[in-house]
Amino acid sequence: GRGPPPAANAARERSRVQTLRHAFLELQKTLPSVPPDTKLSKLDVLLLATTYIAHLTRSLQDEEESPGEGLGTLRGDGYLHPVKV
User: Fold this and answer.
1) Which GO terms fall under biological process for this protein (predicted)?
2) What's the half-sphere exposure (Cβ side, CA atoms, 13 Å) at 6?
3) What's the mean pLDDT when you consider all of the chain?
4) How confident is the model at residue 70 (pLDDT cuts 50, 70, 90)?
5) For residues 10 and 15, what is the distance between their CA atoms, to the nearest angstrom?
6) Which whole number is the average pLDDT over 65-83?
7) Structural domain spans, the chain
8) How do residues 26-52 score in pLDDT, each as one tens digit?
9) How far apart are CA 39 and CA 10, in angstroms?
10) What is the predicted pLDDT for the residue at 30?
11) Do 78 and 48 touch, CB atoms closer than 8 A?
12) For helices 42-65 and 6-29, what crossing angle results, to 10°?
């Protein structure tokens, strides 16, 4: 047969999945108000990350318009969707 043996493909795929899983866990760790042992799907992690980034972006824009407010008051203004625990 052509190409790498199936065992090599399987090993490479396992390694890829492991790397991806680790990256998602690292990303989840950076999210505020997600308890450490929370089980989240990859989709949930991406949704939380993008909404959190949008929240931070808004906070920085608010800070430019009216210094002294903004990031200092992380107002919990709905940047996280409900987390399934």
Assistant:
1) developmental process
2) 1
3) 84
4) very low
5) 9
6) 56
7) 6-64
8) 999 999 989 988 999 999 999 999 999
9) 26
10) 95
11) no
12) 40
Specify the amino acid at residue 41.
S
DSSP structure string for 12-65: HHHHHHHHHHHHHHHHHHTSTT--TT----HHHHHHHHHHHHHHHHHHHHHHHH
Nearest alpha-carbon partner for 59 in 81, 80, 75, 82:
75
- The answer, yes or no, to whether residue 63 has pLDDT greater than 90, is no
Neighbours of 40 (CB within 10 A): 19
Angle at 71 between CA 67 and CA 76, to 5 degrees: 135
Decide which of 3.60.15.10, 3.30.1300.10, 4.10.280.10, 3.30.1330.60 is the CATH code for 6-64: 4.10.280.10
Structural contact between residues 79 and 55, judged by C-beta atoms closer than 8 angstroms: yes
